[in-house]
Write a structure and sequence with these properties.
CATH architecture: 3-Layer(aba) Sandwich
Strand content: 15-25%
CATH topology: Rossmann fold
Largest sheet: 8 strands, mixed
Order of helices and strands: EEHHEHEHHHEHEHEEH
Radius of gyration: 19 Å
Number of domains: 1
Shape: globular
CATH class: Alpha Beta
Distance between the termini: 41 Å
CATH superfamily: Phosphoglycerate mutase-like
Length: about 280
């Protein structure tokens, strides 16, 4: 079952109804390989089907995440992420909650094009996309900063709704890009130096605290840790950095920490099979 999620409003704790404080572990996944990934076409808010390998990648993720026993699964509402998430949700016995804010960057006139096609038919848009910086808005689309802001708002709210829990989020390369930069403080105008493989496992911790918390109101200092079984199930590495990001209105703060990135050991047998077929 898929349940759409709508951003809540109001004046509840931490600026939203039902929000509390505590450390939430987010297991961030990029969707499986698609037809357009293979053809190197820009997808944005358009979609293409998972390839046979992409469906196998989703199944491999499901087998791995079954051991994790996550408390909830969220995903982008775009088909490639939703299809990947449904496979995982079925294996884990959970429903899937969609959130459109987890979508990839809207690429407007560039969507559906390869790089040579974009250079030929949308040269100015392509130039702005590649060299215009994080505030360049693709005609008919959005800027990298706009994508960053909505992705981060969605992930922060998800974390705030599940303090102390382990939550799976299935989305896109751009969404993962947002999470990495939030954790490390890497500026949006810095070139990407990290990988975003299809069906990779990427783990971050998010602590959402109410700004009004104080030593007399110790809620903010309560940091529920994910259980050791969660860490063991994913063979997690050491924490590598953190940064503070204001979010959820003016009364809460989300602190992000990178735990492990780009883990693809669950895909090794698929890669070996593909290489053998290619020979």
């Amino acid at each position: 079952m898929v349940r759409p999620y709508t951003a809540s409003t109001g004046s509840g704790r931490c600026g939203r109804p039902g929000m509390t404080t505590g450390t939430t572990r987010l297991v961030l996944l990029r969707h499986g390989e698609t037809v357009w990934n293979l053809a190197r076409r820009m997808q944005g808010h358009l979609d293409s089907e998972l390839t046979a390998l992409g469906r196998a990648q989703a199944a491999a993720l499901a087998r791995r995440l079954q051991r994790l026993q996550p408390q909830a699964i969220y995903c982008s509402d775009l088909g490639r992420a939703l299809e990947t998430a449904k496979v995982i949700a079925d294996a884990c016995g959970l429903s899937t909650t969609t959130d459109a804010r987890l979508r990839e960057r809207a690429l407007g006139v560039l969507e559906g094009l390869t790089q040579p096609e974009a250079e030929a038919v949308a040269a100015q848009a392509w130039l702005g996309f590649t060299r215009g910086g994080p505030d360049f808005v693709v005609p008919g689309g959005e800027s990298a900063r706009q994508r960053f802001d909505r992705n981060l708002a969605a992930m922060s709210e998800i974390a705030a709704r599940h303090p102390g829990a382990c939550i799976v989020v299935v989305a896109h390369g751009g969404t993962l890009n947002t999470a990495f930069r939030a954790c490390t403080g890497m500026p949006l105008d810095s070139p990407r130096t990290f990988a975003l493989p299809n069906a990779s496992v990427n783990v971050v911790d998010c602590l959402v605290s109410c700004l009004r918390d104080s030593p007399q109101n110790p809620t903010a200092s309560r940091q529920a840790k994910p259980s050791n079984s969660v860490a063991n199930a994913l063979d997690l590495g050491q924490d590598t950095g953190s940064s503070c990001v204001p979010c959820l209105g003016d009364r809460a703060l989300a602190r992000w920490r990178l735990v492990t990135w780009g883990e693809v050991s669950h895909l090794e047998s698929l890669d070996a099979s593909r290489n053998a077929t290619a020979r």
